[in-house]
Write a structure and sequence with these properties.
The two termini are 13 Å apart. The chain has helices spanning 2-7, 10-43, 56-64, 82-112, 123-158, 176-182, 185-201, 206-229, 235-250, 256-269, 271-284. The chain folds into two domains: 1-74, no CATH class; 76-284, no CATH class. The chain is mainly alpha-helical.
Length: 285
């Protein structure tokens, strides 16, 4: 029952996810080529310098490449390793099976004990369900991250894409700000190039630009989950804003291992748990 409830909006979710990524890639493609034209015009006063990269093959490669930021010359590996491809493919199959098992054997029984959405149940029962869902949701989030790692590396190996820096060592992050900068490098690079830098160029202060970029990313995350499920409680957005407040007001008090512990606590009780509450309400309704 739960798997049907999860897969029912799956088409809408992946369609929305696909078109968001496509839109970000196409925006980066046209903006970067505009910057290239400006540089080429400065080098050649009569503007006769052509852009040899403007070809369908180059565009299609960028659309399938595991990156969101366009550039003229991507780094390439010498050849495709069949062993690495099979290894990544096996990882994806195994991880998906484990995720399905966690949903069916751990999360679904918790959902079945509920008769009403989270907003309509008693506060004590709500806390009980959230505490029960925290651990399986955390495992599911970690597995989803590993699945993303396998998919990105599979695509990179298949396309001989040389830049495999998809994330940093976010698990060792001493604070939430470091975690946000390291857990999704492609999105971080796109946001810095096409949002943060553009805002700063328009005389927005760096601190205000960082805040706006964070709020935009939080709203995008909320939109990506809420729209396919036809439910909007703003839980994900508010949870990310709460994490921002924690980072600002408590970050200076937690250092080293204590700061890393705070990061993991926010991962345990933060946006991944809010996502699960959305699926809970979708399952109930």
């Amino acid at each position: 029952m739960l798997m049907f409830a999860l897969f029912a909006p799956g088409g809408a979710f992946f369609s929305l996810w696909f078109y968001i990524i496509l839109g970000m890639k196409l925006y980066s493609y046209q903006e970067t080529n505009f910057w290239y034209r400006l540089v080429d015009s400065e080098k050649d006063l009569d503007g006769s310098v052509g852009q040899t990269n403007l070809a369908l093959g180059d565009l299609y490669y960028f659309l399938f490449a595991p990156t969101l930021c366009y550039q003229r010359d991507f780094p390439f590996t010498p050849k495709i390793s069949i062993n690495k491809l099979l290894h990544r493919l096996l990882e994806m199959v195994v991880v998906i099976q484990i995720m399905v098992g966690i949903v069916q054997q751990w999360i679904e029984p918790i959902f079945q004990r509920s008769d009403n959405p989270f907003s309509g149940i008693d506060i004590t029962l709500r806390v009980e369900h959230l505490v029960s869902l925290a651990v399986p949701t955390h495992f599911l989030w970690l597995l989803f991250f590993f699945l993303s790692h396998s998919c990105l590396n599979f695509a990179a190996e298949l396309l001989r894409f040389g830049d495999r820096h998809f994330y940093g060592d976010w698990w060792n992050a001493p604070n939430l700000i470091t975690f946000w900068k390291n857990w999704n490098i492609p999105f971080q690079k796109w946001s810095h190039r096409h949002l943060y830098s553009q805002l700063v160029d328009r005389k927005v202060s760096p601190s205000q630009a960082e805040l706006l970029v964070f709020l935009i990313s939080a709203a995008l995350f909320e939109y990506l989950i809420a729209l396919p499920l036809h439910i909007c409680h703003l839980w994900i957005f508010l949870m990310m804003v709460l994490e921002l407040l924690v980072a600002v007001f408590l970050g200076s008090y937690f250092h080293g291992n204590y700061g890393n512990g705070l990061v993991w606590l926010c991962l345990l009780l933060g946006p991944p748990l809010a996502v699960t509450t959305y699926f809970h309400d979708h399952y109930i309704l």
